[in-house]
Amino acid sequence: MGGSSFFNSMRASGSNPLSSSIDFIAELTRAVNEVSKLTGDERTNLLLRAFQMIRDLRLETGVRHGHRRDTLRDLEIAALRAEHGTDEDAKKVLLETAEMIRTLKFVLDEKDDALRGE
Predict the structure, then answer these.
(1) Alpha carbons 114 and 97: distance in angstroms, whole number
(2) DSSP assignment, residue 34?
(3) Spatial distance between the Cα atoms of 74 and 55, rounded to a whole number of angstroms
(4) Phi, psi (5° rounding) for residue 47?
(5) Which element (helix H / strand E) includes 25?
(6) Distance between the two ends of the chain, CA-based, in angstroms?
(7) What is the DSSP letter of 1?
(8) At what angle do helices 40-61 and 87-116 cross, to 10 degrees?
(9) What does the pLDDT average to over 81-99?
(10) Mean per-residue pLDDT for 61-89?
(11) 59: region left, alpha or beta (phi > 0 left; psi from -120 to 50 alpha)
């Protein structure tokens, strides 16, 4: 598997994008900008990691999807379609996933600030 240069450089540097949601959002953004260079496996792995991060952040923030339509489930379905779709399909899913992580990170930061009395 050849792969894209930015994924190879991330592996070579030993960088762990899951260690920080900000770093991971940046990685998703780079993936959007270089989506045509990603293999199908790289797209899938990146989205699987993103979905796991969303689940983890939801647990930390206390966000539950309840009985209404679950946005994460919608993204997972869109990702399955994008796996064999166009680069534009993949870009859309990657951007929506990054936005969900960004929003959850904001909620978590606000929760932490409130707990500290700021």
Answers:
(1) 26
(2) T
(3) 14
(4) -70, -40
(5) helix 21-33
(6) 49
(7) -
(8) 20
(9) 88
(10) 80
(11) alpha
Q: What is the pLDDT of residue 14?
A: 46
State residue 117's pLDDT score: 80
pLDDT tens-place string over residues 29-66:
999 999 999 888 888 889 989 999 998 888 888 877 66
Return the number of other C-beta atoms located less than 10 Å from residue 85's C-beta.
14
Which tokens hold the place of 63?
């966000």
Neighbours of 7 (CB within 10 A): 21
pTM: 0.74
* Whole-number Å distance between alpha carbons of 79 and 68: 20
Domain boundaries, the chain: 5-116
As a whole number of angstroms, the distance between CA 118 and CA 113 comes to 5
SS3 content of the chain, % helix, strand, coil (to 5): 80, 0, 20
Please check the confidence at residue 12 and state whether its pLDDT lies above 70: no
Residue 50 near residue 23, CB atoms below 8 Å: no
CA dist 51 and 73 (Å) reads 9
